[in-house]
Amino acid sequence: MDALPAALSDALAVYYYPGTWDWPHELKQSLVHKAAERALNDARVPDRLPTATALLDTYDAWARTVDDFAPVKIDHDVQGLVPDPRDPERGLMTADGSPVIYACRIDLLAVDAADEYWVVRHLIVEQWRDLDALIRDEAAIAACWAWEQEYLSMEIVGTIHNELCIAGAPEPPATGPTSGASSRVRQNEPSGGGRAIPQHRRVSARTARTGETNRVEQCTAGLLRRTHIRRSGAEIGAVGMLIGAEAIDMTSEPAIYPTFAPHCQTCEFSGPCRAQTEGTDPEPLLARRFRRRPADDPRKPRLGQSTWGFGRGAAPPTW
To answer: In the prediction, which pLDDT does 304 show?
Structure first.
C-alpha cells in the first residue's frame, strides 16, 4: 500500500493546526515538511519525501489563494448517542441495556468569515470525485450529526471536501501564492484569544450571507479542488435515524431455536431448552439459575479533564 496518501494527510493536519495558523509562513511550512518526513520514515519509504514535499509546497501555493476559513480543531474524535427510530425521543439501547454510540474522527472543523462552522474532509485522490458522490457522502453528513450531538450548542452548516490530486506533475500558480490572500480568515481575532467552541456569531457576520441560495460551490485551483456543500438541519438530523435503523439490524439478537445434538447432555442451558420444547415458559428457570452479564460502564472524562484549550494556550502536537 502506498504510504504517500497517509503521509499527506498527516501533513495537512499540521498545515491546518489552529495554534500555528497565524504563524509566519516559512516556519509553519517547515513543520508541515517534518510531519510528512516523519510519516514516510515510519512507513520505511523515505524515498517518497521529494514527491511529498513538492506536492505539499504546490498545495500550499494554491491553498493560500482559496482558503476562506480558519481551523478550529483537527483530527477530533466525536461521539453521538444513536436515536431509536421507533422512539426518536430515546436513545437506542442494546439487549443488555448498553447505549449504542456512533463515533467518528473529523479531519478538520473550520469556521468562515461569517462565523459558520464546516466539517472538512481531506481527500487524497488520483482523479476528482464525482459531485454526486460528494453530495451523498454519508460519512461526512454523519460527522456533522455527531459533532452536533457532542456540542449541543453548535450548528454545522455543511461540509467542505478538500481534494488533493496526486496524479501528474505539481504546478504552482503562475501569479504567485498571494493572489487570493484577502479572503484568508485569521484564527485569532484582533481583540486577542483564539477561536473557541462554541463561537457566537457576530451581528455583521449573521447578515453577511442573507439571501445566499447556492447549496454547492466548487472551485479548482491546480491540484486542489474545494467543494462546499451546505447541509440542512433536516438532512443532518435524518442521518441519525438512518444510523439507528442500521444499528438495530447490527445489534439485534438472532433468533435461536432448539437444535438437539450429542453435546446437549453437558450443555448448561439444557434445562431452559427442554422447557421451551415442552411448551413451558423458560423465563422463571433462567431468572432462578442464571444471571445477565453486567454491562460495561465507560465513563467519559469531565470537560477539561482530558482535553486542552483551543486558543493560544492549546497543547502543541508532537512534531
So the answer is: 41
Nearest residue to 73 via CA among 110, 114, 27, 26: 110
- Written as nine digits, the cell of 11 is 501533513
CB contact set of 258 (below 8 Å; sequence gap of 6+): 273, 276, 277
pLDDT digits (tens, 9 = 90+) for 97-123: 889 999 999 999 999 989 999 999 999
CA distances from 139 to 13, 52, 104, 133 (A): 19, 27, 9, 11
What average pLDDT does the chain have? 84
CB-based contact 7:43 (threshold 8 Å): yes
Mean pLDDT over 12-41 rounds to 95
Within 13 Å of residue 16, how many CA atoms lie on the same side as its CB? 30
Joined grid coordinates for residue 221: 485551483
**Grid cell of 88 as nine digits:** 426518536
CATH topology for the 4-176+208-247 domain: Lambda Exonuclease; Chain A (3.90.320)
DSSP bridge partners of 77: 105
**Judging by beta carbons within 10 Å of its beta carbon (0-12, 13-18, 19+), is residue 27 exposed, middle or buried?**
exposed
What whole-number distance in Å separates Cα of residue 81 and Cα of residue 92? 7
Rounded Cα distance, 100 and 251, in Å: 9
The domain segmentation of the chain, as residue ranges, is 4-176+208-247, 256-289
- pLDDT tens digits along 151-192: 988 999 999 999 999 998 888 887 655 544 446 677 665 544
- Residue 121, strand partner residues: 161
